[in-house]
Amino acid sequence: DGIRDLVRSRGLGDVYKRQRARFSSFARVSQASNHSEAFDSYTKAKARLEHVLFSTSSDDADERTKNGTNATSYPMDPIEASRVLLNRSICAHSLEKFDESFNDADMAKSILEGALEHEERNGTERSTIRNELRFRLRKAYFRCAKAAEKTENFDGACEMYMHALKIASPNTKNSKTNTGHIFDAIAALVARDQVSIEFICA
User: Which sign does the torsion angle of CA 90, 94, 95, 96 carry?
Assistant: First the structure.
């Protein structure tokens, strides 16, 4: 969940291929030499993402309907969208822009939650896609928690860490290994008495 995440996400075959074709042309941001340059690059990608995301033209709606996609779904691959947002969140955190770091991770979380709900509601058998969405969603919760810690919202951070644990698929190989750092983060908050008794008892 650090700077090593500033790489392009794994391909998902032909899933969301048409959406990715529209989005990946500007979402591919090359590895920058430092966090400041990377932040600027991802900021430009995010601006274009928001333009596509909040576009409500009838042409876009017609195209998604024609392609068998729910007209209210996101008009781009949610994996690619979350990649840009989470990488920008990482850079913002390193630059001590903690509010922006949280907002980017929260936006990624919303996109991924919607995509995962859509997959599960339609009963698709694409377990690989669902696992990828859960993996990304866990990272989004983790980034939200780290930013919340920096703004001293410790109860909020603990809640986000717990959501990250909940979303992790118990059937995923090495699941305990992949979530060990989340358990450690929660334990550290509790050990430092930074979590309120009200939150613990809730």
Answer: positive
State the sign of the Cα–Cα–Cα–Cα dihedral 189, 197, 105, 120.
Answer: positive
Q: How far apart are CA 67 and CA 35, in angstroms?
A: 38
pLDDT in tens, 78-103: 888 899 999 999 999 999 999 999 99
- Nearest in space to 75 (alpha carbons), one of 30, 32, 23, 126: 23
Which residue, 79, 78, 87, 81, is CA-closest to 30?
87
CA torsion, ordered 150, 153, 154, 155, to nearest 10 deg: -150
What phi and psi values does residue 97 have, to the nearest 5 degrees?
Answer: -95, 70
Q: Give phi and psi for 35, each to the nearest 5.
A: -65, -35
What is the Cα–Cα distance from 132 to 177, expressed in whole angstroms? 17
List pLDDT tens digits, range 131-168.
Answer: 888 889 999 999 999 999 999 999 999 999 999 988 86
Q: Report phi then psi at 76, rounded to 5.
A: -155, 165
CA atoms of 7 and 28, how far apart (whole Å)? 9
CA distance 42 to 122: 32
Instruction: Please answer whether residues 145 and 130 qualify as being in contact, where contact means their C-beta atoms are separated by less than 8 angstroms.
Output: no
